[in-house]
Structures are given as C-alpha cells and as structure tokens.
Amino acid sequence: MSKNEIQDFGKNLQEIKELSQKLKEPLEEPFTTLYFDKEKNEKIKYKGGYIDNKYEGRGILYAYSGKIEYNGYFSNNEYNGFGNKYDYYDEKLEYEGFFTNGKKNGKGILYYYNSQQIYFNGIFDMDNYIEGILYDPNGNIIYEGIFTNNRPKEGKKLKLYNTHGNLYYEGDLLSGQYNGNGTLYEEDKYNYDYKKFSKFIGEFKNDKFDGFGKLYFGKYLFYEGNFSKNKFSDKGIIYYQNQKIYYDGEFENGLMKGKGIKYYTNGNIKITGTFSNDECIQGIYYNPDGIKIYEGEFKNGNPLKSKKIIIYDNDGDKIYEGEIHNGLYEGEGIEYCPILKDRIIYQGKFKNNLYELPDFDLIENKDKITIHNTKIVLLSQGDIPGKSCLFSRLLGCDFPEDTLATIGHDKGEIYYENKNKRYKLIIFDTAGRDRFLSISLKIAKPCMLALYLFDLNDSQGVSIDFIKEIKDVNNMKIYIVGNKLDLFSNFQKINKSYLEKNKNTIIEALQSNLVDKYFEISVKTGEGIDKLFHSIKYDSLKYLESINANSDKKDKENDIKKRKREKKEKCIIY
Ligand SMILES: Nc1nc2c(ncn2[C@@H]2O[C@H](COP(=O)(O)OP(=O)(O)OP(=O)(O)O)[C@@H](O)[C@H]2O)c(=O)[nH]1
Ligand SMILES: [Mg+2]
Question: At 487, which CATH number?
Fold first, then answer.
C-alpha cells in the first residue's frame, strides 16, 4: 500500500464498530451447539454454523473457562471474515477486525489489555501491522503511518508499549528496527544475548546493541562501553554490584581481550595486563592492599601455574622468578634473598619449592678415604636465640620443653641421601654466653658453614664484628638465622616490623659478602626449618663437590678428619 492511499482510520473505526454491533445480535436459528464434554453436555464450546464437522459462517467460540474467545465469522474451521477476539481468561477485547485463515488480515483494531483503550487501529497483513495509528496507554497517538516488523517504520524518540501497557522501547527506529539512540527494557523479551539484562541505554544498529551503551542487570549498571552486534567490544567497564569497577579495559566478541585492569571490591587494582577469553594471560597481580605479588605469564589466568613468573614479597622485592606449578616452584627458576633486593640465592632447577641438590662423583683420596662429610656450627653471641633447640630439631628430636645453657659444646651427626649416595653432616652446638665465645669459635674451626642465630623478638642485635670474627676462623660460609618467628602475628610477619633493628646490619653483611644467606625460622613450630636444612645440604654438597674435584682440598679435609674426636656425640640417619 502506497503512502497516498493512506486510509482514513477514523472511518475505519466507525465501520468496525458498526460491524461489531451487528455481532451483538443473537445467532440466527438454526445453529449447532457443541460441548467440551459430549456425555455431560455441560460446558458449551461452540455455537453457530457447523458444516461437515467444521465451523462455518457466523459462530461463537467459548473457552473452557466459559468466557467467549471469539465471536464472528468462520470458514473452513478458521476465523475468516469479520470477528471479535477476546482474552479467553477474562473476556477482555483483544481485537476487532478482519481475519483470513485465523490471522488478522485487513482492517482491524487492537486494544490495551488492562485499560481497553485502542492500541492500534489500522491494517494488518497476516497478523503483521502494515499501516495505521499506534496509541500510548493514555490514548495519545505515538505514531501514524507505515509499519515494518510490527513496529513503526521510522521515527525519532518513539515510545513503544506492549499491549499490557509496559514501555519496552524508547528511541529511534529505521526500517522497523532499533537504529540510532534508544533505551530497551527487558519487557520486550527480545532475543538478545544478554538474557538477564533489565535495560540497555545506548546506540543500536539493526536491532542490535552497537556503539556506546550502558547495560543494566536488575537495577545495577553492569557494563558501560562499546558494543558490536550485541557484544562487548573495543573498550568498556564492567561493574561489581556495589557499582565499583570490576574490569576496565579492552574487549572483543563479548570477552575481555587486550589490555585491561581488574579491581578488588575495595577499589584497589587486582590485575593489570593482557587479557584473552576473559582471563589475564600476562600481567601483574596485586594483593588487596595494593602490594605486587606476581608478574608474568599466567596459564588460564592462574598465576600459580605459570611458565614465567616473578613473585614479590610484601616490600615489593622479587623473591622468585621462573616456572611455577600449582603454587610451587617447579622447573627453571631463580630465588632471591627476601631482604636484599636482587640478591640471587639460587639459580637452576626447582622441584616442590626446593632447589635441586648437586650430583657429583665421590673420589677416594690417596689414603683410600672417600670424603662425604661436612661440618657445620651453630653460633650466637651473648643472646640465647635457641641454638640447642635447633640442634635437637635438626637431629630429629621434638622441640625441647626445657633447655639448659650450653656449656662447652655438643656434637651431633646426620646422615642423608642424595641421588643414591650417602652423606654425613656433623653439627656442633656451642655456648653463646660471652665468656665461652672464644671456645665456641675454636669449635668452629673445622666447619664449612656457620649458622649465626639471633632472636627475632628480643635481639641484642646482629653484630658485624662478630660476623667478622666468624669469618676470620676459616673463611667459612655464614647464614644469619633469625629464630622465634612464632612470636609474631601475621600482620607483623607481613610488614616485618620486627626486623627494623637488624635489617641494615644484615643487608650490610650480605652486601659485603661476609654472609651468604639469611633465613627466618621458628624452631618451635618448625616454620622455615625444611628450607634451612635443604640449603645446608645444598651448600654441603657444593662444598664436597669442590673438594672432590680438588685433591689439595681433599687432603686438607682429611687432615681435619684426623683431629681428636669431640666428647659428646649424637647421631641421626635421614
Ligand atoms: N618462642 C620460641 N622460643 C624458642 C624457640 N627456639 C628456642 N626457644 C626458647 O629459647 C630459649 C633458649 O633456647 P636454647 O636453645 O637453650 O638457646 P641457646 O641458644 O642454645 O642458648 P645458650 O646455649 O645459652 O647459648 C628456650 O627457653 C627455648 O624454649 C622458638 O622457635 N620459639
Ligand atoms: Mg644452648
């Protein structure tokens, strides 16, 4: 139908009302009456013309509720010609007009369900509106003209309602589709990807979200940004329900892809990096307090399964760089000193969080002796930091309830295996009181490693001078070991406030290479002991490897072996 043939819809209305009036007249006799239940003859299903078991001519069709569903003309069992169609539940008028084979076709009027005001007055083509006037629930004209897709063909800022009077779209239309700016409400139940959405405000192209827009779930803003064919695209922001930002970054095909930042609900950054398929594949992870914890490539967004990662401690210093699997150091990696920035403790292969121990051939020296033992000493100065307790624990005993001040020294032996070879570690526990120090340093003479213990809680301070004295004994390796970590809360452990007094001295000792490693342990709870023991084994084996490769050193070791045996001995086999 062309524009200049536009109907006078006022006439349309009048004509239809007159035809409907006629339908109020009683049916002409004779007519057939049909029942829902033939036997009981109770509920009438149909009254009217009935030929060859089909509704034919004028008739009234009833719903099982007893209400009229249709009053009008039939042909071949279907609505054909003029008729009034009602809601089968409460007999509210839905449509009055012409039908063809059960479908609205030709002139007709649709009504709002609740108010029974006119919804649409115009012309239908097999149930589709093609031309006419659309009204709002208050009787105001929304649109007058041609329709496409059952919507006005073209218009700006149109408000469209469903027949229940609910607004479902407010905006621009072109070719009967949402095109331009608009707001779509969930009432439409239109076939969109985001089924849970309650409202979209933004740009449309051919019925799809396309361009900039805001998408709401329930009453909350869920997404604000660009869309392409209904999907998040280019740049956008996803919000938490509390309306804080969850993700701010790039999208492709509805998923996070490209550069982006994820946030915690407290507003702090959680991850910044590169995303793919909604997961961060490369970037930096922060804890909720804003402290950097991981940096690298994340497998399926999981930093704990990564090929290339840097792990940071709470001061933002690197503690590990390399491969990690299920949260454990596994594969090639570098471990850094926790208190001295960029100081490498170990570089090489890791398994189960621990570094791989060296393997080498044990050689007999000229006296037919295979050197497989190393000696270490526990030292402290003045303080009673728990040397004897550590000594007991290393020898496999429980944490002792009571300890006596050590007088003189104790000696213990540990056997352990590595790559099918057996090694012995001899440990000397010494007396820490000042008056015994010169004896203790003599005990240290044959040792390749000294553990300089101090009490993290009640320290008299780590002393550079004492470290130098140890070093002067035989240039041995030194670990500084802070004990009694159990006396601190998690909070204190995170900010390491207990280290303040000694941190600079320890850093100085590490930087000047007087000291090799720094550990924090609790002999009482066992925290850090495995790591310490592993490192002792590693340095012992490295030492043995070097003396096995160097006969001079072997002989020297042999001489040391021949010295007189210490009085007290304890032994453990690992
Ligand atoms: N809370 C706590 N107390 C510990 C820990 N380790 C040792 N202690 C306590 O520290 C005190 C001293 O322990 P020792 O092992 O005798 O100290 P020491 O260094 O051998 O002392 P000397 O032999 O006198 O030089 C004891 O009361 C232990 O119970 C620990 O990890 N945590
Ligand atoms: Mg002791």
Answer: 3.40.50.300
pLDDT digits (tens, 9 = 90+) for 17-69: 999 999 999 999 899 999 988 776 678 999 999 999 999 999 999 999 899 99
Give me the DSSP letters along 132-186. Answer: EEEE-TTS-EEEEEEEETTEESEEEEEEEE-TTS-EEEEEEEETTEEEEEEEEEG
The rounded Å distance from CA 315 to ligand 1 centre is: 29
Residue 537 three-state SS: helix
Range of the domain at 258: 240-355
Cα distance between the two ends of the chain: 97
Residue 25 in contact with residue 18, Cβ under 8 Å? Answer: no
pLDDT above 90 (res 228): yes
Residue-wise pLDDT tens digits, 479-515: 999 999 999 888 787 778 888 889 999 999 999 999 9
Q: Atom 15, ligand 1: which residue's CA is nearest?
A: 386
487 and 374 in one domain?
Answer: yes
Residue 437 in contact with ligand 1 by CB distance below 6 A: no
CA-to-CA distance for 486 and 411, rounded, in angstroms? 27
Cα(285)–Cα(256) distance, rounded to whole angstroms? 16
Q: Is 524 in the pocket of ligand 1 (CB under 6 A)?
A: yes
Does the pLDDT of residue 574 top 60, yes or no?
no
Beta strand spans in 328-420 (E): 328-336, 344-351, 354-355, 373-379, 409-418
Ligand nearest to the CA of 402: 1
Q: Read off the pLDDT band of 12 (50, 70, 90).
A: confident
Looking at the structure, tell me whether residues 295 and 442 fall in a common domain: no
Ligand nearest to the CA of 404: 1
Ligand 1 pocket member 380 (CB < 6 A): yes
379 lines ligand 1 (CB under 6 A): no
Q: What is the 479 CA–ligand 1 centroid distance (Å)? A: 18
Q: Are residues 319 and 372 in the same domain?
A: no
For residue 148, report the distance from its CA to the centre of ligand 2, in Å: 94
**Whole-number pLDDT of residue 479:** 97
pLDDT at residue 361, rounded to an integer: 83
Pocket test for ligand 1, best of 383, 389, 427, 434 (most atoms within 8 A of CB): 389
pLDDT for 553: 52
Measured between alpha carbons, how far is 397 from 405 in angstroms, rounded to an integer? Answer: 18
pLDDT at 193 over 60: no
Taking a C-beta distance cutoff of 8 angstroms, is the pair 544, 552 a contact?
no
Which ligand approaches the C-alpha of residue 380 most closely?
1
